[in-house]
Amino acid sequence: MFPVYLTEGYRSFLEQRFPAERRRFAQLAQSQQPEILIISCCDSRVSPSAIFDAGPGELFTIRNVANLVPPYQPDENYHGTSAALEFAVQALEVKHIVVLGHATCGGVKAYAQKAKPLSEGNFIGKWVSLVEPAVAKAGDPEAPNYLTRLEYAVVAQGLENLMTFPFVKERVEDGRLQLHGAHFGVASGSLVVRDPETGAFKAPLDTAGLPVRSAAAIACD
Amino acid sequence: MFPVYLTEGYRSFLEQRFPAERRRFAQLAQSQQPEILIISCCDSRVSPSAIFDAGPGELFTIRNVANLVPPYQPDENYHGTSAALEFAVQALEVKHIVVLGHATCGGVKAYAQKAKPLSEGNFIGKWVSLVEPAVAKAGDPEAPNYLTRLEYAVVAQGLENLMTFPFVKERVEDGRLQLHGAHFGVASGSLVVRDPETGAFKAPLDTAGLPVRSAAAIACD
Amino acid sequence: MFPVYLTEGYRSFLEQRFPAERRRFAQLAQSQQPEILIISCCDSRVSPSAIFDAGPGELFTIRNVANLVPPYQPDENYHGTSAALEFAVQALEVKHIVVLGHATCGGVKAYAQKAKPLSEGNFIGKWVSLVEPAVAKAGDPEAPNYLTRLEYAVVAQGLENLMTFPFVKERVEDGRLQLHGAHFGVASGSLVVRDPETGAFKAPLDTAGLPVRSAAAIACD
Amino acid sequence: MFPVYLTEGYRSFLEQRFPAERRRFAQLAQSQQPEILIISCCDSRVSPSAIFDAGPGELFTIRNVANLVPPYQPDENYHGTSAALEFAVQALEVKHIVVLGHATCGGVKAYAQKAKPLSEGNFIGKWVSLVEPAVAKAGDPEAPNYLTRLEYAVVAQGLENLMTFPFVKERVEDGRLQLHGAHFGVASGSLVVRDPETGAFKAPLDTAGLPVRSAAAIACD
């Protein structure tokens, strides 16, 4: 039987969200025109559409383990993330790409702790080996908060890898496309975005230039 | 600058959703224990957490173009979808996997219409070639509603491909894991789920055995 | 560490419920004077204070597996339920006792299906043997809904067993104490109470004589 | 007639709480999977589901007089509390057990003041004799706050007695189960939890390490 959680959740969608957005869904019936591509983690605690309170049609969303961006590798294999990236950039012509990392990421941790294979195929082991080039950006593994620094580094590395795709590089350079890094804190609801100048992660600024921060993030200052 | 749509959406999340779910986020701070894996499309109109009104921690979510499940292929390449599947089943021990297709899927259409490569790498062309084995299940390409039938067939094929993974097969056979297919209609908000006996897609049933259907779906009868 | 679910739940209690009921809690600081004793199950889905939206100080509550009332047995052993019953009736002088059963009761099922011992001590096996005298009241085990009928019979048997306590019998007979049976449906939110004349379980009546029923219970008619 | 307080409370549940939690109740229709067992008092002022703002399905709850845990005693008698403990640990595999004491506990007081039997059966007298081993932990009976210290000691003794159950001991030792002590203040709404290192009772800490305390508790500093 279809999971009760989903059936009842769908009922709730039909009763509450869908009536409020019926017009938008009707408008979107034939095609989508999102301006933003989000590359985030499969993690159940990190739903981009929830964190950004996004309506239908707004976020083209890739979700893979540890929000990884493989480098450009045009061979005969299946590249799910690269395919979605190509579709978003070349077919939908999105204007922004956001790589969204998050706290206590199981994929980053599996890499850092050299976790044992989960099955004979060792799919996770191979996939998270994509974290490798980020290590140099993460600082001392023995110092505090290493996993958080590594999560930040994975985001920065993802932005670098995006630039290895010729169609991304070209559009970034001519100004049609912008790349962004961000990190979600889960427990406190805090979101920080990467300053492209300094590489530091800080609260996003609104149009008045004021930081948008959670109460918990403010309390921890 | 970080997209205004996201900064303001995050503000809305902080003011509305996060306070209502602060307890759940705190509880989830250290780890996730979702019972459901959703494999759905990157499409901006199809957010599983919206369609199922899911709270934080509930849905481990893979999103790739056309909600495709590659068959088991334990080689040296990166397999993002297989890695996420392995993590969900072997590490998180989810109890349900839902392959969620949707209407007017650009990836399925790209395959059906043999679209031209979007870039030199032709990532989408190779990725959507995974649709191929589903064609035989979709019926006459000249008859009406072929694309919808092909979307349904992609879901059915995904369920078949899931069973090529030994760790999935074992758990399905001993009852620890259930596989489900579903399809979201976008325009009308209709959701249908696949009957494992007949292969037909119908409204999901609630615990009283009554179908949960959108007003539009009812009106179309 | 104390469970986050409880710490955050307590925060929620402090912020919402406690301020609204601070006066009542202050009034109750030295002693309680409840008029109702509820004997219900430990089951996590059946909280009497939730189902009856009860405020602090209103319900003296025994919760044991399968809401069982052992018969009067004045020996040297520890009788937790009989002790609580004695305290409620003799010290607090409650005016009502409600035995509250519920749907899909694990304890009743363990008895009906002769479940294997859960540990060497077999505490559950011995405890649910108290269901035995109710069997004769439950009808044909092969006919549909046997477990529900057995749950009803356990409630009826509990009311009978209450009358084996001299201090209960005396007060019921002189009108100071009333005994009631009820059953909660979980899935549909339906509550039914036992008609002392006929033994049938029906929706409770309000002071205007109208049944108070859930929408689901109405829909199932 | 069924008590009006309950009928009207049930109406309130149907109109307010049930619609908000219909999905959760539907999901719970077939079985429960609570992670926490609470052992608390029957006292009408101490509802665990209220104090922890717990939703349906979250707390498996034993309520007996004075929240007592009898020691392991595998004989032929009925042991209601041990049976519920066995069910929670062995069948439901809860991860936490909380023994929750409270202020002005009538059962503890009855023991301390050697209250007269309440009936010929003297059920309370025998039951609260389980307080006996806690006396040595409570300090000088003539010094101030003896009853509070005895309530704390009963909680500590309960935790000790839990460890006499082989199935509890085994799971605590291999890390699958954690034991906790707590005490609720009634009048001020204050909750304190037992520090397993020092045995002191203090405010619980949230995930940021900050104490969660009632305004009254803060004012009393």
UniProtKB/TrEMBL annotation, chains A, B, C, D:
<dbReference type="InterPro" id="IPR001765">
    <property type="entry name" value="Carbonic_anhydrase"/>
</dbReference>
<keyword id="KW-0479">Metal-binding</keyword>
<keyword id="KW-0456">Lyase</keyword>
<keyword id="KW-0862">Zinc</keyword>
<dbReference type="GO" id="GO:0008270">
    <property type="term" value="F:zinc ion binding"/>
</dbReference>
<feature type="binding site">
    <location>
        <position position="43"/>
    </location>
    <ligand>
        <name>Zn(2+)</name>
    </ligand>
</feature>
<dbReference type="Pfam" id="PF00484">
    <property type="entry name" value="Pro_CA"/>
</dbReference>
<feature type="binding site">
    <location>
        <position position="105"/>
    </location>
    <ligand>
        <name>Zn(2+)</name>
    </ligand>
</feature>
<dbReference type="InterPro" id="IPR045066">
    <property type="entry name" value="Beta_CA_cladeB"/>
</dbReference>
<comment type="function">
    <text>Reversible hydration of carbon dioxide.</text>
</comment>
<feature type="binding site">
    <location>
        <position position="102"/>
    </location>
    <ligand>
        <name>Zn(2+)</name>
    </ligand>
</feature>
<feature type="binding site">
    <location>
        <position position="41"/>
    </location>
    <ligand>
        <name>Zn(2+)</name>
    </ligand>
</feature>
<dbReference type="GO" id="GO:0004089">
    <property type="term" value="F:carbonate dehydratase activity"/>
</dbReference>
<comment type="similarity">
    <text>Belongs to the beta-class carbonic anhydrase family.</text>
</comment>
<protein>
    <recommendedName>
        <fullName>Carbonic anhydrase</fullName>
        <ecNumber>4.2.1.1</ecNumber>
    </recommendedName>
</protein>
<dbReference type="InterPro" id="IPR015892">
    <property type="entry name" value="Carbonic_anhydrase_CS"/>
</dbReference>
<dbReference type="GO" id="GO:0015976">
    <property type="term" value="P:carbon utilization"/>
</dbReference>
<dbReference type="InterPro" id="IPR036874">
    <property type="entry name" value="Carbonic_anhydrase_sf"/>
</dbReference>
